[in-house]
Amino acid sequence: MIWDSKKSVILSIICTRAVIVFxxxxxxxxxxxxxxxxxxDSAFRIQDAVVAKLMPxxxxxxxxxxxxxxxxxxxxxxxxxxxxxxxxxxxxxxVISWCCFVAAAVFLVGARGSLALxxxxxAAAFAGLLLRVVKxxxxxxxxxxxxxxxxx
Length: 152
Prior knowledge:
By secondary structure, the protein is mainly alpha-helical. The protein is 86% helix and 0% strand. The protein has five helices and no strands. It has helices at residues 5-36, 38-41, 48-80, 87-111, 115-150. Helix 1 packs antiparallel against helix 3 (48-80), helix 3 packs antiparallel against helix 4 and helix 4 (87-111) packs antiparallel against helix 5 (115-150).
């Protein structure tokens, strides 16, 4: 069995969809986990009060994260179909990068002195910046492809 780019894209789509399901499942059961004392009684040993303070941040951050994941899924689906250097992919990358910046802002505002959340915010902002670079590269490729297509 030879590993090729098509299998890699399919694996990425599967992983993206699994993360979407996981994020929604966590959002659905998080209140129950906190009220049941799951975190205090488990190996995590986190106080329920700490988790309760982090819950609003998680729920607010879920919106841009899920939006980004759905756009990642759409981008990967387009790539699987052979549509790489198209304007839609540039838009997907733009939206994904802005979702990263919004998530970074949510974590930074919610950090209230939490070094871990500040690091998460920095990582999300860095991911957004990298995606802007990739978006610019793909956009240049789209422009070159369009110019080539219109050349006689």
